[in-house]
Write a structure and sequence with these properties.
Layout: H1 11-16, H2 20-32, H3 38-51, H4 57-74, H5 80-95, H6 101-107, H7 110-115, H8 122-135
Helix pairs in contact: 2-3, 2-4, 3-4, 3-5
């Protein structure tokens, strides 16, 4: 695509050459590494969700959330500013209502959710989740 970075390809292109997931991971990594701005990364993420369409909207959301989880895992032992950039992207996704709070909580790690202000405390969330899970045994 003329005028766009090589990594910013349409979701239909991404789907045809190896899947949405890989393309979203690549775009998010470029964002947290400082190669593309938040607006560009968010526009790509948003287009993945929108292009996935009505019947398969979950496929686009799944691709995005899976990619965010993978990148979060890759950033576990890296500079905190990279994790902060990832949390900024999650904040933007949540603020623009690309997916619900419940789905974010279900799919992403508590530390990332806390950094993105989706939950107030990762430790309290983890403790409460453990109590709920052990109470249902």
């Amino acid at each position: 695509m003329a005028g766009q970075s090589e990594s910013f390809k349409s979701p239909s292109y991404a789907h045809s050459v190896g899947g949405l997931h890989e393309q979203v991971v690549r775009q998010v990594l470029e964002y947290v590494n400082g190669s593309v701005p938040l607006a560009t990364c968010f526009a790509f993420v948003q287009s993945v969700v929108v292009v996935a369409g009505d019947a398969t909207a979950a496929k686009g959301v799944d691709a995005v959330l899976d990619a965010l989880w993978v990148v979060d895992q890759q950033l576990t032992h890296t500079a905190p500013q990279r994790k902060a950039l990832l949390s900024d992207l999650v904040k933007e996704i949540w603020a623009k209502k690309l997916t619900s709070e419940a789905v974010l909580i279900e799919r992403l790690e508590p530390d990332l959710l806390e950094a993105a202000a989706v939950i107030p405390s990762a430790s309290n969330f983890t403790r409460r989740t453990a109590k709920i899970n052990t109470g249902t045994l």
